[in-house]
Specification:
The protein is mainly α and 124 residues long. It has two domains: 67 residues; 33 residues. It contains three helices and no strands. The longest helix is centred in the middle third of the chain and has 70 residues. The relative contact order is 0.03.
Length: 124
C-alpha cells in the first residue's frame, strides 16, 4: 500500500507540464517583476537597518544626557540647601539691629551726661 502511494505521488510530481509561449512569457515577466521587488525590499530593509542603528545611537545619547541632567539636578538641589543654610547664618539676629545700638548708645550718653552734671553740681 505504501509503495503504491509513493509511486502515485512521484508520478504526479514528475508529470510534464507544457506551457504555451504566452504563458512562459508571462511567467518570465512575473519572475523579473518579483526580482525587482526583492531588490527594492532588500534596499528597504537596509535603509530600515540604518535607521534602527541611528535610533539606537540617539537613544544612547539621550540616556547619557538624561543621566547628566539628573546629576546636575542633584548638584543644584545641594546648592539650594547650602544657600538656605548660608542665609540662616548670614541673617542678622534681633540683637544686631542698628536701631537697638542707636537707642542704647543714646541712653548711655544721656546717662553719662546726667551723671556728670550731678557730680559737678554737688562739687560746686
Amino acid at each position: 500500500m505504501k509503495w503504491i502511494l509513493i509511486i502515485l505521488i512521484t508520478a504526479f510530481c514528475s508529470a510534464q507540464v507544457t506551457l504555451t509561449e504566452e504563458e512562459s512569457k508571462k511567467i518570465a515577466i512575473n519572475v523579473q517583476n518579483l526580482q525587482v521587488e526583492v531588490d527594492s525590499l532588500k534596499n528597504i530593509v537596509n535603509l530600515q537597518n540604518k535607521l534602527i542603528y541611528i535610533h539606537k545611537e540617539v537613544i544612547f545619547s539621550d540616556s547619557t544626557l538624561t543621566v547628566r541632567l539628573e546629576e546636575k539636578i542633584d548638584v543644584l538641589e545641594n546648592d539650594v540647601k547650602l544657600f538656605e543654610k548660608k542665609t540662616k547664618l548670614v541673617k542678622s539676629s534681633w540683637y544686631e539691629n542698628k536701631w537697638l545700638y542707636f537707642t542704647s548708645g543714646a541712653i548711655i550718653s544721656a546717662a553719662i551726661t546726667y551723671t556728670f552734671n550731678r557730680i559737678t553740681n554737688i562739687l560746686l
